[in-house]
Amino acid sequence: MRNQVQEKLNQIALDHHVRILFAAESGSRAWGFASADSDFDVRFIYARELSDYLKLEKQRDVIELPVDAVWDINGWDLKKALKLLHDGNPTLLEWLHSPIIYQTSDAAEQLLHCSQNFNVRRAAFHYLKIAENVYAQCSGSQIQPKKYLYVMRGLLACQWILEKACPPPVRFTDLMTAELNDPLSQILLDLMAAKQQACEKDTINRIEALDLFIESQLIALNQKAEALVKQDVQSWEPFNDCFMRILQS
Fold first, then answer.
1. Interatomic CA distance for residues 32 and 46, integer angstroms
2. Is the pLDDT of residue 237 over 90?
């Protein structure tokens, strides 16, 4: 499958006249709990020719391929990526720290270096809101295992950020090891095993221990995140320097 991903990236570069700087897996495969029928969420960062950035007309800053049952592939322009890094975008940080890398370069290392000033408050609320939004969709006596895992990943990532003030691990098992007690960890490991053998839409009976933990943590973590002080806006200088270095390389 890795060869197929590389072929698709090569074709994107040819079709759109861009240079792929970085490509990685995102979503459940990167998190470590893909289902039997999970698609491949490939995300990439690309750069156009220098002359494209000097044009007066606005250039599209996203490349998206049609989504099907197997592939979900899209990427962001370098300029867009750097602006998002400047704002502390947690999604882009996950791409850069993915355990499944399809393509990388010196430019990707420079992007990682630019992301060192981590926005704790923004990241904490990002993961907390994911947990809140997914859990709000979980009504009734039946629930998809992936919903529990998405909610718990959001909560544990938020907890990690509040405790350590740095990006959380991408792999869910690493988060569990650091942030969760043994009884709940075993429940989640069983859910992961069930999800990996099942289809995305399969459901199970609700698990009271998880529901109680989730509902209490949503309240507790929100209070802690609200108490965080907003961070100062970062200087644009290192991001501008990074942009020029990559375009000239």
1. 26
2. yes
